[in-house]
């Protein structure tokens, strides 16, 4: 019997789920743009450090890839990836990447994420107590990326995925990046941080609405499974509309010129997206809306950041 062939680059790229990476970097871009712009608002001299930006982007991408690899393996182990699953077939499920190989890839990716994050944090904050706090947050982020669906008692199977995404893609991503650039915290940064946390949670919610039947049958008690499809649509609308209101409130408060309203150019896309969510009857038909909301969030992050920089 011939030995099984090694996973190809195509299989690894599929496991990395490249379409999720723009969402992962959105909060980094926003936090960096706030740091580059905030000086004339808060009367403090600030700047966006290019090295902080590059290392923060690298760390966010590695954490997202780690989460995707762990999710691929975890859902396979727990039986959620089966013949009834909607969406692209996973690499461990299909046999393209053996479980042991996937575990090794997770370890390598986790080590790289920790190394990148450590260089970022120590380089920005030095050997201080604040550095230790950020290192702890980094370890928690790695743990959250792995434990979403992997291992014993994964929190994603208990309906806590939305909370984790909101915290790490929103609050930690935006506020943490801003702090690493400026070495201080501005309360107003919370508004865009909450906005992008809500939009990121919305992407997960679409995923869970799509998978509601298979998740319920597999014992994966996501928030959507717990609340049902009808309430999940209301919840989803609240997430998207709430995010827009946070950005509008922030922009009204800072009164920094017309360019800060550029993010509204993506609003029609969100309106069309919500209409599709409400009118789509078959959960599996929501699959295209994952990409729509993820790219809409990324576009909003780009426009919001550009508006601040131009202002």
Report a brief summary of the structure:
The chain has 311 residues and is an all-alpha fold. 72% of the residues lie in helices and 0% in strands. The protein has helices spanning 9-16, 21-37, 39-42, 50-77, 91-94, 99-125, 129-147, 161-182, 190-210, 212-218, 223-227, 229-254, 267-279, 287-310.
Write the layout of secondary structure elements.
Layout: H1 9-16, H2 21-37, H3 39-42, H4 50-77, H5 91-94, H6 99-125, H7 129-147, H8 161-182, H9 190-210, H10 212-218, H11 223-227, H12 229-254, H13 267-279, H14 287-310
- Low-confidence segments, given as residue ranges, are 39-45
Strands, count: 0
Instruction: Give the biggest sheet.
Output: none
Q: What string, H for helix and E for strand, traces the elements in order?
A: HHHHHHHHHHHHHH
Mean pLDDT across residues: 88
In DSSP terms, counting alpha (H) and pi (I) runs of 4 or more, how many helices? 14
- Structural class based on helices, strands and sheet pairing: mainly alpha
Helix content: over 70%
**Tally of separate domains:** 1
Strand content is under 5%
Distance between the termini: 66 Å
Shape, principal axes of CA atoms: globular
Rounded radius of gyration (Å): 20 Å
């Amino acid at each position: 019997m011939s030995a099984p062939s090694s996973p190809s680059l195509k299989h690894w790229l599929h496991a990395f789920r490249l379409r999720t990476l723009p969402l992962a970097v959105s909060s980094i871009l926003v936090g960096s743009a706030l740091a580059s712009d905030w000086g004339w608002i808060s009367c403090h001299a600030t700047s966006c450090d290019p090295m902080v930006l590059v290392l923060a982007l690298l760390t966010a991408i590695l954490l997202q890839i780690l989460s995707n690899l762990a999710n691929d393996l975890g859902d396979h182990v727990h039986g959620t990836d089966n013949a009834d699953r909607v969406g692209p077939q996973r690499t461990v499920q299909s046999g393209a990447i053996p479980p042991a190989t996937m575990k090794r890839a997770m370890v390598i990716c986790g080590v790289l994420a920790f190394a990148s994050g450590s260089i970022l944090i120590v380089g920005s904050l030095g050997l201080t107590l604040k550095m230790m706090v950020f290192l702890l947050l980094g370890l928690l982020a790695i743990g959250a990326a792995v434990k979403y669906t992997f291992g014993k008692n994964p929190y994603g199977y208990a309906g806590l995925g939305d909370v984790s995404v909101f915290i790490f893609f929103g609050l930690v991503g935006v506020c943490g990046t801003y702090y690493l650039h400026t070495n201080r915290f501005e309360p107003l940064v919370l508004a865009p941080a909450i906005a992008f946390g809500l939009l990121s949670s919305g992407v997960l919610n679409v995923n869970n609405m799509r998978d509601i039947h298979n998740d319920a049958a597999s014992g994966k008690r996501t928030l959507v499974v717990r609340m049902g499809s009808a309430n999940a649509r209301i919840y989803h609308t609240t997430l998207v509309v709430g995010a827009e209101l946070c950005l509008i409130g922030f922009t009204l408060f800072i009164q920094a010129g017309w360019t800060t309203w550029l993010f509204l150019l993506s609003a029609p896309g969100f309106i069309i997206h919500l209409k599709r969510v409400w009118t789509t009857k078959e959960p599996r038909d929501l699959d295209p809306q994952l990409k729509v909301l993820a790219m809409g969030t990324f576009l909003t992050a780009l426009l919001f950041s550009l508006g601040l920089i131009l202002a």
